[in-house]
Amino acid sequence: MTLNDLKNDWISEFSQPMMIAGPCSAESEAQMLETARRIKETNAQVPIFRAGIWKPRTKPNGFEGVGVIGLNWLKKVKQEYGFKTATEVANAHHVAAALEADVDILWIGARSTVNPFTVQEIAEALKGTKKTVLVKNPVNPDLALWIGALERLLGQNIENLGVIHRGFSTYQKTKYRNNPNWQIALDFKSQFPNIPMLVDPSHICGNRTGLADITQEALNVGYQGAIIETHSNPDEAWSDASQQITPEVLAELISNLKVRNSGLAGFDNEMGRHRTLISDIDFQMIELLSQRMKISEQIGKLKKENDIAIFQPERWKVITEYAVQKAKETGMSQDFIEKVFKAIHEESIEKQNNIMINRM
């Protein structure tokens, strides 16, 4: 059996979009029950309650989760409010404890997905389970690692699988905590349309701004749901406070989502994919142009300190020759490429001019 052979009937149990919500971290029984109660009282279509029991942190000595005791609170949420439950597992010990607590859905986090040894340990501990296992994309943009993690699980006869797109880490600072890099996620979806994909806007955004937009964008390109961090008192959360929302805000977000279902669904999905990829590329271009202008500013400072003229004809000649070369290589219009480079060069000169006359 291969990944393409999986039926993944588990997803049909839930209405679309399938929503998973709950706090980043379990902090206390009271916090868990209040969050669950308020999600229930909003009548939001959320069948699955999530909470981090063990929290892998970037640096030591921070809050790393309450541990096994939190599983008892998850059980109580299930008993009192009827939610199915979900949590992250990162080793065989976590798996054993989660299975004993009858957690319904387990997910493998981005830091674990990146390590084949860790994934193999988790897969062997889960061997033959009928539980649903979701795999977050690896921290770095590596499609092969993501697919490999699923293949390791399938190798242990785990057949109820899904993936979570939570974005990819980047050295560059952007408006996202983790860049969506939609191309990689959509490449996965194209290869394995039978494997349900959820979006994790909380980790993509890293704050409350943009959660609705990212979730809607994912639904527009055929994702089946989302996992959104929700806390009874987000500002006081012990981890990732800035990206969590209240149950009431969650309910409003969900109520405003639009799931397309028309005779042109195939066309809409394909068009949506193309538009999403264009938006992603546009965002990357703007970020790169911003970085380029910052370098131009540094060059401007050097020119000012050394009394060097801003415009350097030889440099402009190199740029235009490069533009002609790239136009030929890419099959794009030479005139178009030259216009783009000219606009960039003019903006660069303007920034350096401002430095020369002390405007910056």
TrEMBL record:
InterPro entries: Aldolase_TIM, Chorismate_II_sf, Class-I_DAHP_synthase, CM_dom_sf, CM_II_prokaryot, DAHP1/KDSA. PROSITE patterns: CHORISMATE_MUT_2. The keyword Transferase applies. Its EC number is 5.4.99.5. Keywords: Transferase. It holds the Pfam family DAHP_synth_1. One of its GO terms (molecular function) is transferase activity. It comes from the Bacteria. SUPFAM superfamilies: Aldolase, Chorismate mutase II. One of its GO terms (biological process) is chorismate metabolic process. Residues 265-356 form the Chorismate mutase domain. This is chorismate mutase. It comes from Chryseobacterium aquaticum. The lineage of its organism: Bacteria, Pseudomonadati, Bacteroidota, Flavobacteriia, Flavobacteriales.
